[in-house]
Amino acid sequence: MIPSSPKKMSERSAKARKYRPTSPSTFILPTMARKSSFLKQALAALLLLFALYAFFSAFLTPGDPSPSSSTGDPLSVSRESSFPDVQPPKFPPPVRTYMYDLPRKFTYGVIEHHYLARGGHAPPSDADLKYPGHQHMGEWYLFSDLSRPEADRSGSPVVRVSDPEEADLFYVPFFSSLSLIVNQGRPAGTAPTYVDEEIQEELVTWLEGQEYWRRNSGRDHVIIAQDPNALYRVIDRIRNAVLLVSDFGRLRPEQASLVKDIILPYSHRINTYNGDVGVEKRKTLLFFMGNRFRKE
């Protein structure tokens, strides 16, 4: 057998590598892929246009009545049902509060004894008595506010009621913090005529005799004891009440807590602000520093 020459082998290889026409089916897949991509892009563009139309129709079209609403346009009906008119916020009703008409010795009587203990003379009427300024004056502010005519308290979140049956809360306006310091300014060598511990006991005895205190064991009653030592003798007997205190430093967990009681700020720890809205026009507390520096 005579072997083929290298020249003939190279000619056969070249013929084998010669270009052969591709059948029409070879072009089908790329063409279909391009058409599918174009359809997807067109569909995405249509969806985007529809979304933009719905957005502008729902949020930027004025709410005037249009012919479409009267002709029953489905898009208009759907838009109106999906975005109802926003109602204005509703504020809670004011708290109806009944303030006890305590015996005088628990209110103006405390102020009078404070006068007398310092060598002063009692004014002819309670209207002339001035509550002495000190760091626990919240008890006076609450009492004087609730004592004003309701016509002067328009817009207040608290409404004073004269019928205890209508009350949500019962306020006990005892000047407990002032009572605690009545004898502190007494001149040396003079016998005290006022005993705070006895007044505390008399107050609670009076309260326990009231029908509305007994009804809920005092749980709907509000008592202010802003000085940490105020009402210390009877605190266990009034612990069910809502206590207005400065802190819980001298109160046990079963006597007071944030669950039922309220922290009042020290007025002397609030810096005076004289900006565009001064103290007289301010409706809310601007700054509160609640840390008291104790002596012990």
UniProtKB/TrEMBL annotation:
Please report the name of this protein according to its UniProt entry: Exostosin GT47 domain-containing protein
Coiled-coil ranges per UniProt: none
Its annotated compartments are: Golgi apparatus membrane
Q: Which family does it belong to?
A: Belongs to the glycosyltransferase 47 family.
Keywords, A to Z, come to: Glycosyltransferase, Golgi apparatus, Signal-anchor, Transferase, Transmembrane
Keyword Glycosyltransferase part of the UniProt annotation: yes
**One GO term describing the cellular component:** Golgi membrane
Membrane topology type: Single-pass type II membrane protein
- Which residue intervals make up region (Disordered)? 64-90
The primary location reported for this protein is Golgi
